[in-house]
Amino acid sequence: MQVRLHARNTFAFIVGAGFLYLAYLIFFKSGDGFPEIDVDLNSVVSYAVLAVEMGGYAVRKIHEENKLNIAQKGLTDEGKAELLTKADLISNYLILDVLQRFPRLKIVTEEKDSSISEKEATPYRADSYSVWLSIRDILSQIPSYRLTLSDVQIYVDPLDATQEYTVFGVKGWGVMTSSGKKLYPHPLAETARKIVVSRSHAGAVEKLARKSFGEGYDVEPAGGSGYKTLRLVNGTAGKVII
């Protein structure tokens, strides 16, 4: 018996086998259907900043329309109401929409509700190109650094300090005190002996802080992780427990 190979059939077989192997690498060996991607961290951070700007635009617009749709999504460990607003959900949707440009980027978000549709989000979607133009000078200063995208993980809290948002709303400044007043910087040399703790998730933190650091520190409850961090930066608090 004699077997004869035709060049055309042989070529078709090799091409077919090559595609099958490529499909195996993409859909099975890589785990989630996408090969590893090497990116510049500058690009990821730029999109993250754009996402924050898009989300912030929605938060402000929803408050201006007075359509917060405040709901309670549960209770904190201390039994206090944990609030959820339309701004949380719309902002979360828009932020994730921008970040999903990177298929292997790991994203952990506080809001798990995915019931928002594109139709609901569209009225609060800023023009991304206009937003990018307004921040491109800042983005150009981000240093370049190559890394594997799957090694990057982003945590999203679409509206930090929801409780303060429902009480004080949107002010003409980015950061406020827990009483809704504008925050002014203080000299770092005059750092206060003060410990700032979470207002809504305080638990036994105040007691623990006094036990650990002594009575020489005052303990102050405050809302918003960003605000508490800035208290360290501007010297109006010496320690923060989140």
Automatic annotation (TrEMBL):
Q: Give the Gene3D superfamilies listed for this entry.
A: 3.40.190.80, Fructose-1,6-Bisphosphatase, subunit A, domain 1
Q: In which pathway does it act?
A: Polyol metabolism; myo-inositol biosynthesis; myo-inositol from D-glucose 6-phosphate: step 2/2
What Enzyme Commission number(s) does the record list for this chain? 3.1.3.25
Known cofactor(s): Mg(2+)
Molecular-function GO term, any one: 3'-nucleotidase activity
TM region(s), chain numbering: 12-29
Membrane topology note? Single-pass membrane protein
Which top-level enzyme class is recorded in the Swiss-Prot or TrEMBL entry? hydrolase
List UniProt keywords, sorted A-Z.
Answer: Hydrolase, Magnesium, Membrane, Metal-binding, Transmembrane, Transmembrane helix
Organism superkingdom: Eukaryota
Q: Which GO terms describe its cellular component?
A: cytoplasm; endomembrane system; membrane
Q: Which reaction does it catalyse?
A: a myo-inositol phosphate + H2O = myo-inositol + phosphate
Instruction: Tell me its family.
Output: Belongs to the inositol monophosphatase superfamily.
At which positions is Mg(2+) bound?
110, 157, 159-160
The protein's location, in the record's own words, is: Membrane
Q: What is this protein called?
A: inositol-phosphate phosphatase
